[in-house]
Amino acid sequence: MADEGMQSWKTLALGCAMTEPGTSRSFNTGDWRGRQRPVTDREKCIKCGACYILCPDMCYSPDTEAEEEGYWIWNGFYCKGCGICIAECPKDAIEWQDEKEEDKYGQACRT
Amino acid sequence: MMLATEALKDFEKITPKKIPEVEPFSQGHRACQGCGEVLALRLAAKAVGEKLIAVSATGCMEIISSPYPQTAWKVPWIHVAFENAAAVASGVEAGRKALIRKGRFPDDGAKIVAFAGDGGTADIGMQALSGALERGHDFTYICLDNEAYMNTGVQRSSATPYGAMTTTSPPGKKSKGQFTWKKNMPMIAAAHGIPYVATASPAWHIDLMNKVKKAVTVPGPAYVHIFSPCPTGWRCPPEQSIETARQVVNARIFPLFEVIDGRFVLTRDIKKPIPVKEYLKGQRRFRHLKDEDIAYIQERVDADWERLMALVKATNPETGE
After folding, report:
1. Which residues of chain A make contact with B72, given a CB cutoff of 8 A?
2. Could you give the maximum distance between any two Cα atoms of chain A, in Å?
3. How far apart are CA B65 and CA A29, in angstroms?
4. What is the pLDDT of residue A76?
5. Residues B193-218 pLDDT 10s
6. Residue of B nearest to A81 (CA)
7. Residue A56 and residue B31: Cβ atoms within 8 Å?
8. B34 Cβ under 8 Å from any chain A Cβ
9. A82 to B34: CB separation less than 8 angstroms, yes or no
10. CB pairs under 8 A between A and B
11. Distance CA A38, CA B111 (A)
12. Is the pLDDT of residue A96 over 80?
């Protein structure tokens, strides 16, 4: 990011226009989080999608790899750790779990 | 003229099963933890869909979505100064209309939506907004109300509620924090006689998306006022931001209503309101308030609710009795 910002003005688009949409996707906001992550208990999950629709950082997306359809998968690359999903889950299926430094950006809601 | 009623006849509602999958606003934006404003913005963008032209006034949402050389927008987006989001949106609309008429540009049915904060709406952008609403441009103005100038460090605006602590209304021996009542922006917009005005809260996300979708469906100007909790500026825990947005409606402080062609429709009737104290005690910006201040707030909130009920009754004569 620091190197990306050091561009010559000659390479910039006219009027500093952004030519590519949604480039902030490459920015890691996951390191804003503390040492805890929200983990979904799929036994309790009723697939209501409250975590998906109420997440301000759009961390939850449909889990296409799960055996059963309808579950939501958490993305640690963007999660800032606000805890809205935990507070708003109607079945209290999401809980904080301590995370190690090495698996910080891994997928954690496959349990 | 019943512009909005006519346009909303065949309105296809967003339901929990039919939530649009498009995300015109992408991940990796720099909003604080638990930001209710970016959630409101995301839901609004989702409701409009990919055919969106966003005009963004200066404010939190402009800062966090466009950290150069990156952008969180996947749709055409223009940043303008604090005061003229409505003026630029009307310019975009007029320019597009002229180009389509001359055949230089296909009419793809794109919706022009101006986003601004409460400072950009109620204080600085008021004149431009009033002008744009009066001229009747076909655009939607969304005010994301977090009740102060959060991006510059919590300064008071005219939309800051009574008693709130901000850096420019500090409580102390001779001050109770903000000493004026919150400016009633939705009513000011409704007073222009525009086809559609609504208030929304991100705690009722389906309702919020439906209101934004209605606003862009209606021809002519529309105004949507969205209550957006700000954990950083309100000094409340980030996970409580949705709960705060729910409490404010349940305490009747921020009623959810629509004004369709001048007809007031209450979208969420609060039969058993929670005391305002419950809402106030969740945030540290109200911590200094004494019991008599809270009693004053309760009294005024009740009076405002009665006034709204009277308006609902007066403008719906057939269901009023």
Report:
1. 22, 24
2. 56
3. 13
4. 85
5. 999 999 999 999 999 999 999 999 99
6. B33
7. yes
8. yes
9. yes
10. 111
11. 36
12. yes
Query: What does chain B come to in residues?
Result: 321
Q: Name residues whose C-beta falls within 8 Å of residue B146's C-beta, 6 or more positions apart in sequence.
A: B36, B37, B60, B117, B118, B228, B229, B230, B233
Q: How far is B278 from chain A (nearest CA, A)?
A: 18
Task: Decide if A110 is inside a domain.
Answer: no
Name chain A contacts of B240, Cβ cutoff 8 Å: 87
Q: Is residue A86 part of a domain?
A: yes
* DSSP string for B179-208: -SPPP-HHHHHHTTT-SEEEEE-TTSHHHH
CB contact B42 to A (< 8 Å): yes
CATH number of the domain residue A63 falls in: 3.30.70.20
CA-to-CA distance for B66 and A87, rounded, in angstroms? Answer: 29
pLDDT digits (tens, 9 = 90+) for B140-163: 999 999 999 999 989 999 999 999
Q: Give the pLDDT of residue B78.
A: 93
Residue range(s) defining the domain that contains residue A60: 29-103
Distance from CA of B92 to the nearest CA of A (A): 17
Instruction: Map tokens 């750790």 to a residue.
Output: A81
Q: What is the pLDDT of residues B241-274, one digit of tens each?
A: 999 999 999 999 999 999 999 999 999 999 999 9
Query: What pLDDT is recorded for position A108?
Result: 47
A77 lies in some domain:
yes
Dist. CA B195–CA B158, nearest whole Å: 25
Q: Do B28 and A25 touch (CB under 8 A)?
A: yes
User: How would DSSP label each residue in A37-62?
Assistant: EEEE-TTT-----HHHHH-TT--EEE
Give dist(CA B123, CA B159) in Å, integer: 8
Tokens at residue B274, please? Answer: 């929670």
Q: pLDDT at residue B46 above 60?
A: yes
Domain count across chain A: 1
Alpha-carbon gap: A21 to the closest alpha carbon of chain B (Å): 4
Are the beta carbons of A84 and B239 separated by less than 8 Å? yes
pLDDT at A1 over 80: no
Q: Select the residue from A58, A77, A95, A96 to test the B interface by mutation, using most B Cβ atoms within 10 A.
A: A58
pLDDT of residue B319: 54
Contact A48, A72 (CB under 8 A): no
- Tell me the per-residue pLDDT of B91-112, one tens digit each, with 9 for 90 and over: 999 999 999 999 998 988 899 9
The answer to the question of residue A37 being in a domain is yes
